[in-house]
Amino acid sequence: MSKAQPAAPPAIPPVGTGPVRAVLLDADGVLQLIGTPWRQALAEAGGPAFAERLLAEERPALEGRESLTDLLDRLVRSLDLRTTTAELLRLWRRATPDPTARQLVADLRATGYLTVLATNQQWERRQWMRSQLRYDGLCDLDAYSCVLGVAKPDPRYFEDVLRLAGVSAHEALFVDDSAANVASAQGVGLRVLHHPADAGGQVLRQGVVEALTRTL
């Protein structure tokens, strides 16, 4: 008996068959796998107080107004941590690109959609992603928060990305694993998909195709 062939991935509706012209995709948890949940990873590396302070004070770094290194230096000193800034920086150098998710991006582009990397990142992590994970050229447009000067879930982030992409809110589908980011994008008028963190490219493709199909 011949083995059953694997099911073909769901087909992407061609651009023009519905209102969506651009697909905005988050990086961590969507296009790349992060493994240990972020808050847990922070707590394991520097303790619960470090995790709380980092998450509460990271916005200037995400918006490019402070370096991640300076932020970590300040927290190491104020919390009298035994770990060093260099050791903590390794947390931001962990992520595994998802080949199936990247293939989805390629297929979206081939089908005529404008693709946007819509991600919150500090200058240091942006450089690491570009040099080590080869994000340059993956999407048609890159929208790193540190470059734009505003970070999700601030509605201004989505407004800036829409201007950058040259599309209206109803013409864009935004995909993220953060409920807060998804809610903010929806408030601006974007179509949204709340993707389960680290669910993988197959789940991502199914969700994106279903979201695009619902707009037909």
From TrEMBL:
The lineage of its organism: Bacteria, Bacillati, Actinomycetota, Actinomycetes, Actinomycetales. One of its GO terms (molecular function) is hydrolase activity. SUPFAM superfamilies: HAD-like. It comes from the Bacteria. It holds the Pfam family Hydrolase. This is HAD-IA family hydrolase. It comes from Actinomyces respiraculi. Gene3D superfamilies: HAD superfamily/HAD-like. Keywords: Hydrolase.
